[in-house]
Amino acid sequence: MANKKIFEKLNNLTGRQREVLQLYCQGKGYAYIAEQLFITNEAVRSHMANIYVKLGIRKSSINLRRKMIFEHFCPALRQFDFEVRAGEPIEPEPAPEEVVQMVEADERDLVVIEPIIVNFPPIEEEQPQYKPKGEEKMVKQIKPKNGKKKRRFWRWMLFIMIIALIAFGGMQVYVWARGFINDVVQPIINQNIPEQSQPQPQVQVVPTDTIKSTVPTPAPAQQVAVPTSTSQPTAPPQPKILFSDNFDAGLSSGWQVAYGNPIIVNGVLSTDQDTLLIVGDTSWRDYAVEFDADAGDCWLSAGENWVSVRNVDTDNNYAYKWEDCESYWYVVKNGSWNEIPKSEFSPGYDTLRFKVQVQGGNMSVYVDGTLMASFFDNGYSQGRVILKISENTTIDNFVIKELE
After folding, report:
1. Looking at the DSSP assignment, which residues form a beta bridge with residue 365?
2. Contact yes or no for 366/372 (Cβ under 8 A)
3. Are 30 and 45 in contact (CB under 8 A)?
4. pLDDT tens by residue, 232-267
5. At what angle do helices 4-11 and 41-55 cross, to 10 degrees?
6. Which site from 70, 121, 145, 345 is most exposed, i.e. has the minimal number of CB atoms within 10 Å?
């Protein structure tokens, strides 16, 4: 079942844009789509550019765009029947030129392999035989029961009997030879063996206690049992909780609201606008930030949630940004956000358990206990924690644990 946010984005497309996207989901090229819809190639590119904008994938990499289209939006098109709205424009809407160029670049990178049709010659069927003189009934070809077939049968029977006799005779010869060797040959061999070669019985000398030792045996020392205390296994040390808030009693006083409007509903933190919360001490070094979260949108272009760790200040820190469909690690230096290569992944939908961990120079993020992205950097050694959430994002069970 497609996510509600995916359906809402597809519902924002016009009917013509959905037709273009449906053919694109079938693996059709832009020229084929133009031919099927009786429009120009330029119109197809303009429609695709508007699709990129409305689906929120214009700022993603080409691989992530295709992944989201074919794994999320294409299945949703097949699952739902979108209503046709009257008065929708058929002509393509104006699209940003840079997005049109992006669509053209994606078209050049997309290689479509046409299927090869192979024609095999028909298989000739065996024609039935019919009786002469125009008779219509089909007859089966039956081999005559002649003497040759019978003779061949008796030849096989004679061959099997000969093999059986040979096998039986061989067994009888083997039994006779074995008895002859045991009864006649073996006694003669035993007589010719000299007596000294015969094995002599071993005489076992058993020590006796008739001769007693003159050395007195010391008496065993009396052992005194000393009670000892039973040591119980020591439980592993639990990580120290630096801060926690489950929002059941509202927003904890440990938070500092930098801007926005934090809203607590049924013990869950949310907001109706971009909100920034600060917590912790600048001396914090190695710790893990854990929380349950459900992002308010699919793409970072529509909204941004992030957790900043080892925050020296808002212009210098490590930050993990996420939404449902994409997320990245960043190193923030002097206000410039530098994306970490190969840290991109899609967290997923619904409520997930995140853990953002900093230990030494290792920065890692886990989703539902699985390591998703990590990198190494020793630029910042300590700092506070900042939580930034966008509209409709929910946060619960927020805790910061100190690491050894």
Report:
1. 356, 373
2. yes
3. yes
4. 666 667 889 999 999 999 999 999 999 999 999 999
5. 140
6. 121
**Cα angle 360, 363, 365; round to 5:** 140
Total H helices, total E strands in the chain? 9, 15
Which residues touch 342 (CB under 8 Å, ≥6 apart)? Answer: 373
Task: Give the tens place of pLDDT for each residue, 92-111.
Answer: 888 889 899 988 888 877 65
Q: Which residue has the tokens 């909780």?
A: 241
**What single string gives the DSSP state of each residue in 295-319?**
-S-SSTTT--EEEEEEEEETTEEEE
Residues 37 and 19: their CA atoms lie apart, in Å, by 8
The secondary element (H helix, E strand) that includes residue 275 is strand 275-279
In this predicted model, what pLDDT tens digit does every residue of 310-363 receive, in sequence order?
999 889 999 999 998 889 999 999 999 999 998 988 888 789 999 999 999 999
- Side-chain-side CA neighbours of 316 within 13 Å: the count stands at 10
What is the spatial distance between Cα 248 and Cα 225, in angstroms, rounded to a whole number? 57
- Bigger pLDDT: 143 vs 369: 369
Give the pair of three-digit tokens for residue 226: 């000393």
Cα(212)–Cα(220) distance, integer angstroms? 19
Q: Which tens digits make up the pLDDT trace of 300-324?
A: 877 889 999 999 988 999 999 999 8
pLDDT at 159: 80
pTM: 0.52
Residues 30, 44: Cα–Cα separation, whole Å: 6
What six digits make up the tokens of 329? 């690690």
Q: Please, what is the average pLDDT of the chain?
A: 80
Task: Please list the residue range(s) of the chain that carry CATH number 2.60.120.560.
Answer: 241-402
Instruction: Determine contact, residues 310/383, Cβ cutoff 8 Å.
Output: yes
- Tokens standing for 174? 């083997």
User: 363's torsion region: left (phi>0), alpha (psi -120 to 50) or beta?
Assistant: beta
The CATH T-level fold of domain 241-402 is Jelly Rolls (2.60.120)
